[in-house]
UniProtKB/TrEMBL annotation, chains A, B:
Residues 12-72 form the HTH tetR-type domain. This is DNA-binding transcriptional regulator, AcrR family. Keywords: DNA-binding, Transcription, Transcription regulation. Residues 35-54 bind DNA. It comes from Streptacidiphilus jiangxiensis. Transmembrane segments: none annotated. InterPro entries: Homeodomain-like_sf (IPR009057), HTH-type_TetR-like_transc_reg (IPR050109), HTH_TetR (IPR001647), KstR2_TetR_C (IPR041490), Tet_transcr_reg_TetR-rel_C_sf (IPR036271). GO terms for molecular function: DNA-binding transcription factor activity; transcription cis-regulatory region binding.
Length: 204, 204
């Protein structure tokens, strides 16, 4: 037992721990700029050990981006997103999208940085557009309902809304210890919701 | 005369036209990933012709980013940004920053994408932070004045505000002809100002 803990075995790597390393390298070097060699070096395991878990770089991208997409699309099925007024559903989606973005920060960062022409990248871009369209439809519904202003076109409003939310991947860094991190995340989530729906102006 | 117009001379390139090509290549390939060879090919002139105008890649970055910075810092000296309530000054700055971003789209895009460790890149990042700090100070002043909500910390509000504005470089593309482009830019500028200060909710 002592021997085992002193010398971690190669197969102590799971797909999840491999993904955690992979997503970091993809975010630093870009998906294009990352080789299996880079991943092997960063993970501290051989390429053949990586191939034991996945078919290659493209599958790693699909798994990492898939984790972000599962989180985001999962929101749209939550009761808060399926029942109530369009405004209440949109508020739920904005709040939860920001929460998921902060909770899955490296994975959503990768999703938002994907560019390019491989099949896996095109698929990620397509899924991202699909999510944006679902939210834009909700914005349009809330405008029709009369609870959102009608003078900003829903598609434009949605783009600016996601501009604000997605900018978090550029600067948000969780604090060192868990409790502070949680407080700070909650503070950011509240600020996004308040600014999105009510803007900077003081009430009254 | 006819001969001259049929055979453009190398020195018909000015620093401005060279910059227009350069900024496009930097935005496509990244500053790091661009060689003088790439620039020479994209501009259709020899490397020595480029060296006739500038010392090298780093000077091109400084000039291109400088154009964006001149536009942005110029706003802070405009009468609308120096007189009136803090709220009125901030509204002017938000409106004009969005206008300048759209008018100088490729140059501001480059400024916002700069990462890295060369002196020119560090200088660009430093200038960008300085601009953000100046706006954050104005936000703080407007909070003190009572015209902006006090429940969102000024630095956080400023980051989210710029998140929304800066996201334009990711998706805004001017329409084909000038007049349409102008109408569409004006519409986007108005939408940013409205959402920033009043949010998505319908009034009342």
């Amino acid at each position: 037992m002592v021997e085992t803990s002193r010398t971690p075995r190669r197969d102590s790597y799971t797909v999840d721990t491999l993904l955690a390393v992979t997503v970091q390298v993809f975010n630093e070097r870009g998906y294009d700029g990352t080789s299996m060699e880079d991943l092997s070096r960063a993970a501290g395991i051989s390429k053949s050990s990586i191939y034991h878990h996945v078919k290659g770089k493209e599958e790693l991208l699909r798994l990492a981006v898939g984790r972000a997409l599962d989180g985001l699309f999962g929101i749209l099925d939550e009761p808060g997103a399926t029942t109530g007024t369009a405004l209440a559903r949109l508020q739920h989606v904005v709040h939860r999208t920001t929460e998921v973005l902060l909770a899955e920060l490296p994975y959503v960062t990768l999703l938002l940085r994907v560019r390019g022409n491989t099949a896996a990248e095109q698929w990620a871009l397509q899924c991202r557009r699909e999510f944006d369209h679902r939210v834009a439809a909700l914005v349009a519904e809330a405008v029709t309902e009369g609870s959102l202003r009608a003078d900003v076109e829903p598609r434009l409003a949605t783009r600016l809304l996601f501009g604000m939310i997605n900018s978090l991947v550029e600067w948000y860094r969780p604090d060192g210890d868990g409790s502070d991190g949680d407080r700070s995340a909650a503070r950011v989530v509240d600020a996004v919701s308040e600014l999105a729906f009510h803007g900077l102006r003081a009430a009254g």
